[in-house]
Write a structure and sequence with these properties.
about 270 residues, alpha/beta, Rossmann fold, 6-stranded parallel beta sheet, 9 helices, 6 strands, about 50% helix
Amino acid sequence: MLKMVATFAPKLAVELGSFGFEASTYLQTIVFDLGTGRIKFGNGQPIMILPGFTATDGSLYVLEKTLISLNFKAETWGQGQNHGDFNRLLPGLLEKFFEMYERHGKQPIMLIGWSKGGRMARKLANMLGPEFVAGVLTMGTPDRPHTVRDIEEIPRIPIRLIPKKFRATYLRYMGMVEGIIEELKTPAPHPHSGIPTTICYGGADMVVSIKDAKMPDKYLHRNLQNVLIPYCGHLALGFSARTIRVIVQHILYDFAHHEEVLEEYEMALAA
């Protein structure tokens, strides 16, 4: 128990400190960025946001509402808790995606994924292709397989020590953990070459380290970029005005250049 406290307490302190800072400076930073032109309003671009592992749509409330207030048509994924099984979630994700696609006049959709939701967003984008997906932006998403070592350190509490009314929940949660451990033993799907992809990661992320989150430099190009959010923790990424700034800039860029990127991709396929 003491070893567990010594291992996780400092990381938790960093995460909570980062969250407190980002939450306390959120409004004034947004207002300042609007006033200085660092953030611009959208014109109704459709966006679907996917939550992190074990999280639900509620974790995306601030991000979703902020993007809506900036005149983007942002919606959360509507699939409940992210239990991590992409194949089980896929039918609902496709239904949600194409319902949005039809409702927004068959415009391509931007996918934003937080943590594990970023791996799912990338998988979905790779399946659908650039005709349907304007861009992908991930936040604190584990790309490389190093993170699994930290997850495997999560202590397993003997079931006899869990109160009976909480045992089913505990077993369900640990089952999800074991599933994601297996997935994280392999890298995330490589971004689609015809879909602009932005990889945001926090400089103080104690859940997914920088080396796990960032794309290796050898893969980077104009439409595949790493973006560091300095001093930002994992839990704060979706509540950070500095993350919002990056998100808005890339939404506007990806939609503005969608036809150009799609044409380049199709020419490359034909060559």
